[in-house]
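Progress against Task 2.4 (sequence-to-structure conversion) is shown through the following example record, which the project officer requested during the mid-term review.
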Amino acid sequence: MTQPLRLLILGGSTEATRLAAALAQDAAYAATVSFAGRTEAIVPPPVPYRVGGFGGIDGLVQYLMSERIDGLIDATHPFAAQMKAHAVTAAKLAGVPLLGLERPAWTAGPGDRWTEVDRMDAAVDALGDKRRRVFLGIGRLNLHLFARAPQHAYLVRLVDPPREALPLPDVEVVVARGPFHDAADRAMLERFGAEMVVTKNSGGTAADAKLVAARALGLPVVMVRRPAVPERQVVATVADALGWLSRLASETPA
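Structure tokens generated for the chain above:
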């Protein structure tokens, strides 16, 4: 009997969840999803999963080898630059094929008023000195950078309720998990009286409602570009990832 292909999926994206769901239906694969653990309310995938880091590159190499992983799929968030770099190095050291699964970045279209910046601290500068009402669609980890612009009023949307006071003197918090919808995001921005939107270029459709709403309301958007990551093979869809896995399975000795 042919043994199933042992896979490790580095999760944290919608694509990781969809890939895990597809693989759960196919006995040819035995997949495990790894979550970094930055989000408290993890939605369990329909395959085995683990939570927490590996202890750096060496830890990931050890895991790949001890678990006899046949294929590594990096489906982390587009801004998880360190994990992506670790995956590239660890896969080479362990001799494990690596595939990046990453949705395409957003691009500005007609009616969009974007200012693109390379770093989150540059996004703070792009707000200007004049007091504005700003929606921060950036998650939790970078909120402290905006503390040096306390003149603004902020609306922050988080997946988990904050356990302590946020580092912003004038802030309102909305706790919600995507996917988000155009009409609801427009209503949220209108209720807050938003004058600007700040977001990371995550891409995909689960969180683009704020951009549709900003376009409809004529709001300027500060868009943080994706960080650079080491070169690796990348596909944009779960279907393409499944095709890669099918080829890998045909090339892997039973």
